[in-house]
Batch of 3 targets.
Target 1
Amino acid sequence: MDIDLPDVLAEVTAQFQRYEKALVSNDVAVLDELFRNDPRTLRYGIGENLYGYEQIMAFRAARSPVGLMRKTDKTVITTYGRDTAVASTLFYRDSTPGRVGRQMQTWVRFPEGWKIVAAHVSVIDEPKGQ
């Protein structure tokens, strides 16, 4: 298996950056577009477990657009073959000093393009010395 083929890595990185821009600007249409429209798509959030595209869409539609700005750090995107990737990043918000968010996404290439099929978001106290 080829890992991190340059063209595939560039494609997924562009989609990840598109996701990040949509997240901080609350562009719900783009966020909805980037998740796979499938009942098996899931997102484990900070305070919610969302099963299926419909629940993820409903969460995004109801979410407050306030306080979404964040800074990412230590982003790692790894591609496996031409059709699968994992994107992981840390994030920091000014509104939660001393805390670090962690986000992981599994991306799969479908005929309609790259889509997130699973996502996990959590926040912890920032580990000392890291």
Note: The chain has three helices and six strands.
Target 2
Amino acid sequence: MIVAFSVSPLGVGEDVGEYVADAVRVVRESGLPNRTDAMFTSIEGEWDEVMDVVKRAVAAVEARSNRVSLVLKADIRPGVTDGLTSKVETVERHLSE
């Protein structure tokens, strides 16, 4: 499965980069395939391991903020691996045609 999620503290002002970095650090240390862009972090793995990482990423932000926003989107597709790369490669192949 692939989960794209965004976690952000609320009530700390507009500059939230250091809080988001705490969450991304948890994701990167998990060892699961992941990507971070301007809006979301995507992570790929089995349900329990991915959700555990999301929970720990939220906790990292929550440790420094009384309120946290979480947006999550999941692509649950058993048997598919390397979706983070293959989905993008498919789009790029179609663009180059």
Note: The CA atoms of residues 83 and 89 lie 9 Å apart.
Target 3
Amino acid sequence: MYPEELVMPMKAELTDKGFQDLTTPEEVANAIKKEGTTLLMINSVCGCAAGAARPGVIFSLTGDKKPDQLTTVFAGFDKDAVAEARKFLAPFPPSSPCVALFKDGELVHMLERHHIEGNPAGAIAANLQAAYDEYC
């Protein structure tokens, strides 16, 4: 588990932009099952989270269409919440960072780590905006 002083600034990058920080399995299940669209980012301390995933996710929200709900959990810190989130991401294997879009509780779009690594934030944002155009 990562130390709180390391994780909290990385969480704040998203929570300061309106993301709900989910820290318990119950919060995760309730958020994902809500009616409408829910974006979930499994955040991470890795370089691709800092350089591409978080900036890309934030930039993706500048378009006309956006998810109804923005949520996040942190791998290596919110252990039980992340485990619960990963139950909803099947059949995709565990991956962090990753970004998922749910509609009415159903997984409709997924960006795994291998989609994030090596790609610029703009490409991640464009991918997510295309999903928002389709599902939001």
Note: The first strand starts at residue 20 and ends at 21.
